[in-house]
Amino acid sequence: MSSCTWVCLLFNLCTLLSSYPALSDPFLGEKGLTEIPSKFLNLAKRPELFEYMVRIRRSLHENPELGYEEFETSRLIRNELDGMGIPYKHPIAVTGIVGYIGTGNPPFVAIRADMDALAMQEAVEWEHKSKVPGKMHACGHDAHVAMLLGAAKMLQEHRSDLEGTVILVFQPAEEGGGGAKKMRDAGILENVNAIFGFHVSSSYPVGTVATRAGPVMAASGFFEAKISGKGGHAAIPQHTIDPILASSNIIVSLQHLVSREADPLDSQVVTIAKFQGGHAFNVIPDSVTIAGTFRAFSQESFMQLKHRIEEVITLQASVQRCNASVNFYADEKPFYPVTVNDKDLHKHFQKIAGHMLGDENVKEVQPLMGAEDFSFFAEAIPGYFYYIGMVDETEGRIAPGHSPYFKVNEDALPYGAALHASLAATYLLEHPPPIATQKLSSHDEL
Ligand SMILES: [Zn+2]
Ligand SMILES: [Zn+2]
C-alpha cells in the first residue's frame, strides 16, 4: 500500500468521525447547555417516543392499582427498564423501584413518579377506560409513570454524555399512604444531591409549567374521633346523653381554631368531612364518629392545630357529659410535611424551563392547601416540585384530579419527559463533585 493510500484512508476516517455528531458534538455538552432543553423536547416529541409514552399510559390506565398494590404496574416498569438496559433496585417499599442511569458516581440527581390509582369508578367512556371496577387513575399518576419512562429512554440513549448519575424513583402509595416516606426511610436518597418531581395540572395550558420557590403545598394530617354518650328514646332525652348534639358542638368549636386562634396571615384549614351516627328518626344513638383533615404551612402551626383538635374534641365532649377518643392514624396515614421548593433549584428550574418553553410559559403559582408526599423527599434533601399544564384551550375545561371525569391530555407527555431529562442532565453538568468526594460515595448498582 502506498503512502498516498494511507493518507487518503486517514483523511476519510477523519471526515467520517467529524460527521458523526455523537463523537464531535456530544448531545449534552456543557457548551450547549442552553440548547439541551429544546433538544430533549424535540426528542420527546418524536412520534416513536410519544407513541411509546401514550401506549404505557393507556396500559396503566386500563389496569389501575391502589397504593402498595401496584404489583403489575411495577412489573411493567421493570420490564421496560430491562428492555432499555437500565439497572434498578426492587422492591423498595413493597412495589417501589429505583433505577440508575449514568456513571454510577457523583453527583446524583433524582427524578420521581408516583404509581398509584384511586378507589373510585371511572365515569369517562373511552376506549382505554379502567377495566377494574371501583379503581381509576383519576390523578394522572399513569401519565407520571409514562413520562418518567420516556425521560429514562432519552437519558439512557445519551448516558455516555451524563456527568454523574440520574436516579429514577418510581414510588408507591402517594394517595395518603406516604409511599415517599417509606422510600426515603429505606435510604434511597443516600448521597443524592437533589430531587425533582411534578404533577399534571388541569389549570394550565399544554406547553406551560407553574411553580414557585419556598412552600408550595401544605402539611396535612387526618383524624377521627368517636364521641360516646348514652342512647335512648328520642322523646325522652333526659334519660340519654346525646352524642349527636355533643358532636355538633365539637364541630362548631373546631371551626374556631382557624377563625379565632390562628394568625389570619398564616393559612390553615380544619375540615370535618365525615359525620356518622344514628339510624332512626326516634332513637338517640350511643355514639357518633366524626373525621376530617387539618392543614398548615408551618410545622409549628401544624402541631399546634393537632394539639388543639384533640383538646377541643375531648373537652367539648365532656361539657355535654360524653367521652371522646381521637385517633390521628399517624402510622397508616403519616402526616405529610409542608412541600418546600429549594431556592437554588428554583433558579435552575426557571432557567431550564425558560429555555425549553419560553420565560412567559413558566408561571408562578400561589401555594395550595393540598398536600403531596413528595414533601418527604424535599424534607430530606433539596427538592423541587412543579405542575405540568395539560389544558387544551380549544377543548375547554378539564375535570380536576380525583373527579370520575378526570382525563389526561396526552399532548402534555413530551413536556414532562423532556423536563425530567433536561433538569437532571443539566443539574449534573452544573454540579461537578468536589474532587475529594468523587471516590468516597458511589452507587454500586452500575
Ligand atoms: Zn391525587
Ligand atoms: Zn396525584
Automatic annotation (TrEMBL):
Residues 223-314 form the Peptidase M20 dimerisation domain. Its cofactor is Mn(2+). It holds the Pfam family Peptidase_M20. CDD domains: M20_IAA_Hyd (cd08017). The Mn(2+) ion enhances activity. GO terms for cellular component: endoplasmic reticulum. It comes from the Eukaryota. Keywords: Hydrolase, Manganese, Metal-binding, Signal. The keyword Manganese applies. Mn(2+) binds at residues 139, 141, 175, 199, 402. GO terms for molecular function: IAA-Ala conjugate hydrolase activity; metal ion binding. Residues 1-24 form the signal peptide. The keyword Amino-acid biosynthesis does not apply. GO terms for biological process: auxin metabolic process. InterPro entries: Amidohydrolase, Bact_exopeptidase_dim_dom, ILR1-like_Hyd, Peptidase_M20, Peptidase_M20_dimer. Belongs to the peptidase M20 family. NCBIfam families: amidohydrolases. This is IAA-amino acid hydrolase ILR1-like 4. It comes from Sesamum angolense.
